[in-house]
Design a protein that fits this description.
Distance between the termini of chain B: 73 Å
Radius of gyration of chain A: 17 Å
Number of strands of chain B: 9
Largest sheet of chain A: none
Shape of chain B: elongated
Oligomer: heterodimer
Structural class of chain B: alpha+beta
Order of helices and strands of chain A: HHHHHHHH
Radius of gyration of chain B: 21 Å
Largest sheet of chain B: 7 strands, mixed
Strand content of chain A: under 5%
C-alpha cells in the first residue's frame, strides 16, 4: 500500500484493525483464483479438504489479534512487512481456497468459532482498564472493541440466517 | 486416499508454523502486550538515567547527578492529568509511607517528573505536591524544561506519551527504581503498592548490610 495511505489507515486503531487488515485479507481472497489457476495441483494436493487452509487462516488471524503484534506492526518495520505479506497470501488466499471445500459442518464451526473469538476480543478491548497498545488512546481501544462486537454479532446473525433461511425458497 | 495424507502433513506444517510464529511473536509466550514486552526489555537493558537538567517545585535547578549515591524512585506525570496520575501519585505516597524513616532522604529519594514542562512550572508543581503530602525535599516534583532532554529520557525509559487535542496526554505508568549509579533496575506495577514497597525495602536492606 502507498505509504501515505498506510499512514492514514494506521493512525486510527479501529481503521487499522478493522479496515486495513480486513482489506488485506479481502485482497488475498480476490487474488486467490489467480493462484488457483496457476498452481491447481498445489491446492488440490495439499488442501483437498480445506482444513489446512482454514487452519492457516486462523493462525494468521489469531496472530494479528494479539494486542502486541498490532503495536509492533507500527514500530518494527519487519513486522509491518510481515503484515503486508501474511494477511493477503497466508490468510486471504487459503480462506478462499478452503471455504468452498469445507463441509456444512466445517462452515458452521467456523461461524461459531469466529463469533466467539471476536466476542472475546471485544470484551478484551472494551473491558481492559489498561492500554493494550501504547500507540493508541484508550478511547480508540474501546472503539475497536465495539467494532469487534459489530463483527461478532454480524457473523452470528449470518450464521443463524443460514440455518433458518433456505435460499431455494427465493429463487 | 493419497490426498488425505497430504492434508494431514499440511495440517501439521501449519500448526508447527503457528506455534513458531506465536512463540517468536510473544517472546516465548511471555509477553502478549507491548507493556509486558516493554517492562521485560527495560529490565534486561538496564538503561542509565541520562544527564538532564531538572527544575523542581522549589525552583532549584540541578542535574540528575544530584542524586548520585542514592536510590531514586521515579514516576512520570503531568499535573493537569485527571485519571491515572493522581492514582499513580497516591500510590507512590503509600509506598513512601512504607519505607522506614531511616532510609528516606539518606538512601532513597522519591522524584516525580513532569513531562508537560509548559504547564507544570514550579508554582504548579508546588501546589500539586501538597495533595500528596510530598515534602518537596525527600520526595521532589520536577520538570525537565529542555524538550530534547525530556524526549531522550522518555525514550530511554520507554515512557510513551501521546498528546491529545484537549491538552491531555495518554501515557503508560509505572514505578521506576534507579540505583545509586543512575541505572534503572526495577520497573514496578503501580497498582501493587505492597509488592513495590517490599521490593524497594528488600533492596535498601541488602544495600545497608553491605
Amino acid at each position: 500500500m502507498l505509504p501515505p495511505v498506510a499512514n492514514l489507515a494506521e493512525s486510527v486503531m479501529a481503521i487499522h484493525m478493522h479496515m486495513q487488515m480486513t482489506m488485506f485479507i479481502v485482497v488475498g481472497v480476490l487474488m486467490a483464483s489467480y493462484f488457483q489457476k496457476r498452481f491447481p495441483g498445489f491446492f488440490e494436493k495439499w488442501n483437498s479438504n480445506g482444513v489446512p487452509g482454514i487452519l492457516l487462516f486462523m493462525v494468521i488471524l489469531g496472530y494479528w489479534l494479539l494486542p502486541r503484534t498490532m503495536h509492533e506492526a507500527l514500530s518494527i518495520p519487519a513486522v509491518e512487512l510481515f503484515k503486508f505479506i501474511s494477511l493477503p497470501f497466508l490468510a486471504g488466499v487459503p480462506l478462499r481456497d478452503s471455504w468452498g471445500k469445507l463441509s456444512g459442518l466445517g462452515k458452521n464451526i467456523m461461524y461459531i468459532l469466529l463469533s466467539i473469538i471476536f466476542g472475546f476480543m471485544a470484551w478484551l478491548y472494551i473491558a481492559s482498564p489498561v492500554q493494550l497498545c501504547n500507540n493508541y488512546l484508550i478511547i480508540e481501544q474501546k472503539t475497536l472493541g465495539w467494532g469487534f462486537v459489530f463483527l461478532a454479532v454480524s457473523i452470528l446473525i449470518y450464521f443463524i440466517s443460514t440455518l433458518v433461511i433456505d435460499p431455494s425458497d427465493y429463487e | 486416499m493419497k490426498n488425505k495424507q497430504y492434508n494431514s502433513i499440511a495440517i501439521l506444517v501449519v500448526l508447527l508454523f503457528g506455534a513458531i510464529l506465536f512463540f517468536i511473536g510473544t517472546d516465548g509466550f511471555s509477553a502478549y502486550t507491548v507493556e509486558t514486552a516493554r517492562v521485560n526489555k527495560l529490565m534486561e537493558d538496564n538503561p542509565v538515567f541520562p544527564e538532564v537538567t531538572l527544575e523542581d517545585s522549589k525552583e532549584r535547578v540541578y542535574s540528575f547527578s544530584e542524586f548520585e549515591g542514592k536510590y531514586v524512585m521515579l514516576t512520570f506525570i503531568y499535573t493537569a492529568c485527571s485519571d491515572v496520575c493522581p492514582q499513580l501519585e497516591f500510590n507512590l505516597a503509600e509506598v513512601y509511607k512504607k519505607i522506614p524513616q531511616k532510609y528516606i532522604g539518606e538512601d532513597i529519594v522519591f522524584l516525580s517528573i513532569s513531562f508537560d514542562p509548559k504547564n507544570d512550572d514550579p508554582a504548579t508543581l508546588e501546589k500539586y505536591r501538597y495533595y500528596f503530602d510530598s515534602d518537596g525535599e525527600t520526595w521532589r516534583m520536577a520538570r525537565i524544561s529542555g524538550q530534547k532532554e525530556l524526549d531522550g529520557l522518555l525514550k530511554e525509559f520507554g515512557v510513551t506519551v501521546i498528546p491529545d487535542e484537549n491538552g491531555n496526554f495518554q501515557h503508560n505508568s509505572a514505578f521506576y527504581l534507579v540505583d545509586p549509579n543512575g541505572i534503572l533496575i526495577e520497573v514496578m506495577d503501580f497498582e501493587e503498592i505492597e509488592i513495590a514497597a517490599d521490593k524497594v525495602n528488600t533492596i535498601l536492606d541488602s544495600k545497608v548490610r553491605e
